[in-house]
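Exercise 4. Each item below gives a protein and its sequence. For each, produce the structure-token representation.

Item: Argininosuccinate lyase (Candidatus Onthocola gallistercoris).
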Amino acid sequence: MKLWGGRFTKETNQLVHNFNASIGFDQKFFRQDIEGSIAHVTMLAAQGILTDDERDVIITELKHIRSEIEDGTLEITPEYEDIHSFVESILIERTGETGKKLHTGRSRNDQVALDMKLYIRDEITECDGLLLDLLRVLYKIMEKHLDTYMPGFTHLQKAQPLTLAHHVGAYFEMFKRDRSRLADIYKRMNTCPLGAGALAGTTYPLDREMTARLLGFDGPTLNSMDSVSDRDYIIELLSALSTIMMHLSRFSEEIIIWNTNEYQFIELDDAYSTGSSIMPQKKNPDIAELIRGKTGRVYGALMSILTTMKALPLAYNKDMQEDKELTFDAIDTTKGCIRLFTGMVETMKVNKEAMKNSAKHGFTNATDAADYLVKNGVPFRDAHGIIGQLVLYGIEHHKALDDLTLEEFQAVSPVFKADIYDAISMETCVNTRNTIGAPGREAMEKVLENHQDYLKNAGAL
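Answer:
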């Protein structure tokens, strides 16, 4: 059944039907479609547009349809144009003339806008919960590794020593920001388009405030044209998902590097690794690599919808149907990646000794050695040159600064004394940096307290 056949004298070409139809993907929000219809007829009855008996018949059957789709006894079939026509057609088959009144005061334009908003709202909430699970795992890693020393990098070159807790803490901040972005989108999109009609409202005395309230919105949208043509919230969501994926991808890249034989900072659990069909020794970080790869897929969805929307005049245009497949895929991809990433980092083993040795032999304490000279009266520029000579000497003789003898230090500068070893130990280099946000243990403990409060008070959107 089509909802618009009266004007037409010929059947739609099958290829045209297939090209035009959206039921292959918009069936994904059958629950939201039925939820919106229940609210709509509840409001129609309250306004005297439907009788209470008509309302009850429609709502009872809509709930039956929902249950039957959920348990598989009612199959959504492709001869219908979209999920809206499927639900309405089944309703009319079962309730006759009463079912035909469901669509009173409503267009598919405001109906699909509502369904998409309800669906996106649910998915934002689920995605937020997954990020919260990830943050809890990252917090446990931070708490456990306050004294796990490792090199910090710039330009992928070893720079200064820090701790695994501090390094993971950088990603904690990123995923916190991701949650705040989702919350902003949820708040900004939470207005109800139902009642906007095709583009110009309706002559029926609808109570749009009631419908919005029944569906958990903050209120109705205030312009009917914008109501049916707004896809900003989808663009914002895809942008936020792209940022989440970028963060996951950056962390995945580091895990891939840390997992190499050359670094051996971590070992991934067997459950989150794969092997080779020809090389028996291989244990590959495929999950991290796939997350890195799927990031481009989510970026593609964002660019596609931006391109689709860039030249559309008001109000609704069929081009907008392209938003659904892209958005559904991007949401499913991002949620799957967050789940897998969370499990991967929760189960990985950390090689503390390898991390600490890498920091030592990467001369990450060179800055602290220069600071030692400055504190003993040497101008910084001269200190920089002296430590540069010692680093070159260490490279040539395969020695870390910590491993040089006092005689070797003093051969370059007589200022060095026996206390140089304490000054450039990993523990000193890290734990004397205690301004807020730095890797020192005292500073990190304060940050962990902050994170603990954040997680404790983190509620649903």
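Check: The CA atoms of residues 259 and 428 lie 27 Å apart.
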